[in-house]
């Protein structure tokens, strides 16, 4: 039976971490997968998470199944973080999902099953897995322009022109709420307002990927795109993740929120979302959602969480500046100062696939083939070696 199965190519992001782990070079640097590292190069468990886990250890009374849509208090807090008070809970259907990827797959299955024949429009470039997730669910994938020719900033005119002219009414447009993955290039608040207008005029459904809330400008500030869209559009999907901002990567904590025009439509949509969940993974894992709910139910732990997110955000911004400065000291071929206006974990370095290969083969430095660098993986210790190597391959 199995002799017909062909070997699949390694995943373009997680496959690199597998290769990194096998690399025997003690000076190796992994700037591929989007995982935060502290100044000592570790991915820490947040202090608020540890404290919440201590509480859970004492108070948790069961490991029984959660409901198909997850923990009620978790969903309530998710609503607050994403929408504030802008939309009443009665118009929003939320399912807790295994990570942001789980949320995207649930969205994809809902789109494929209920909104046919909608296609989805992805920015070019976008997170490598977007294409795969929607294709796997049977949703047609198209792309809209995003970056300028130099790949250093947004080509907003081209993006808007594509959204105005290419999708059909009823198509879905995937937007990154903040910290665009892989480029770090985000629209401004004014640009969001124009995007929202086009989405409304053209009758498109926004699906907003919100995997980095708090890593751009701040926890509330990073919701600007969603809040602006909501002023104009009365329907939306949002895929949230707490992998990065709670450091809960392996606990797989996320959620899909569906904003409907009215409570009746939200109720019907929730019933379909639950069918999608039930036939995929039955119901979500408890622990990560319970941690988030415990933190956000406690004013003290919430304050600590805000501080820890700010610490991570500020460290990434500092690394970004240091990388730019150190590259400037080493060479004059390429000015990296465009990285300073980008936000979040990632930057599009402009390194070409040959340079990316050379960094890996000669220097044991791992970055994604597109030239995406995880700035959050830079530390004071690895930066000089990284900059020497980048200068050499340039
Ligand atoms: C990334 O883009 O590196 C992260 O979102 C992790 C992943 O699953 O790819």
UniProtKB/TrEMBL annotation:
Its cofactor is pyridoxal 5'-phosphate. Pfam families: Aminotran_1_2. Residues 28-390 form the Aminotransferase class I/classII large domain. Its EC number is 2.6.1.1. It comes from the Bacteria. It is an enzyme of class 2 (transferase). SUPFAM superfamilies: PLP-dependent transferases. CDD domains: AAT_like. GO terms for molecular function: identical protein binding; L-aspartate:2-oxoglutarate aminotransferase activity; pyridoxal phosphate binding. The keyword Transferase applies. Keywords: Aminotransferase, Pyridoxal phosphate, Transferase. GO terms for biological process: amino acid metabolic process. InterPro entries: Aminotransferase_I/II_large (IPR004839), Asp_trans (IPR000796), PyrdxlP-dep_Trfase (IPR015424), PyrdxlP-dep_Trfase_major (IPR015421), PyrdxlP-dep_Trfase_small (IPR015422). Homodimer. Belongs to the class-I pyridoxal-phosphate-dependent aminotransferase family. This is Aspartate aminotransferase. It comes from Rosistilla ulvae.
């Amino acid at each position: 039976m199995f002799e017909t199965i062909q070997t699949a190519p390694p995943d373009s992001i997680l496959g690199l971490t597998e290769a990194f782990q096998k690399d025997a070079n003690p000076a190796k640097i992994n700037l591929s997968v989007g995982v935060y590292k502290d100044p000592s190069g570790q991915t820490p468990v947040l202090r608020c998470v540890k404290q919440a886990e201590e509480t859970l250890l004492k108070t948790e009374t069961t490991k029984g199944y959660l409901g198909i849509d997850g923990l009620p208090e978790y969903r309530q807090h998710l609503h607050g973080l994403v929408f504030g008070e802008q939309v009443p809970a009665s118009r929003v259907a939320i399912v807790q999902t295994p990570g942001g990827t789980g949320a995207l797959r649930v969205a994809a299955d809902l789109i494929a099953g209920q909104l046919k024949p909608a296609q989805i429009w992805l920015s070019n470039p976008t997170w490598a897995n977007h294409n795969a997730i929607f294709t796997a669910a049977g949703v047609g994938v198209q792309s809209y322009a995003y970056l300028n020719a130099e790949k250093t900033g947004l080509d907003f005119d081209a993006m808007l022109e594509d959204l105005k002219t290419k999708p059909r009414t009823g198509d879905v447009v995937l937007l990154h709420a903040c910290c665009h993955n892989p480029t770090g290039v985000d629209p401004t608040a004014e640009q969001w307002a124009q995007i929202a207008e086009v989405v409304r005029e053209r009758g498109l459904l926004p699906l907003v990927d919100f995997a980095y809330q708090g890593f751009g400008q701040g926890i509330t500030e990073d919701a600007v795109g969603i809040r602006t869209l909501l002023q104009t559009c009365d329907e939306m999907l949002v895929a949230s993740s707490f992998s990065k901002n709670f450091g809960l990567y392996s606990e797989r904590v996320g959620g899909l929120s569906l904003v409907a025009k009215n409570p009746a439509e939200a109720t019907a949509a929730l019933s379909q979302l639950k069918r999608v969940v039930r036939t995929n993974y039955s119901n979500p894992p408890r622990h990560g959602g319970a941690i988030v709910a415990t933190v956000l139910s406690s004013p003290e732990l919430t304050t600590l969480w805000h501080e820890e997110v700010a610490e991570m955000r500020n460290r990434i911004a500092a690394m970004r500046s240091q990388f730019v400065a150190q590259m400037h000291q080493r060479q004059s071929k390429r000015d990296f100062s465009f990285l300073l206006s980008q936000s979040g974990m990632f930057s599009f370095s402009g390194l070409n696939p040959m340079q990316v290969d050379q960094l890996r083969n000669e220097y044991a430095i791992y970055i994604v083939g597109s030239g995406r660098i995880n700035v959050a993986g830079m530390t004071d210790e690895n930066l000089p070696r990284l900059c020497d190597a980048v200068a050499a391959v340039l």
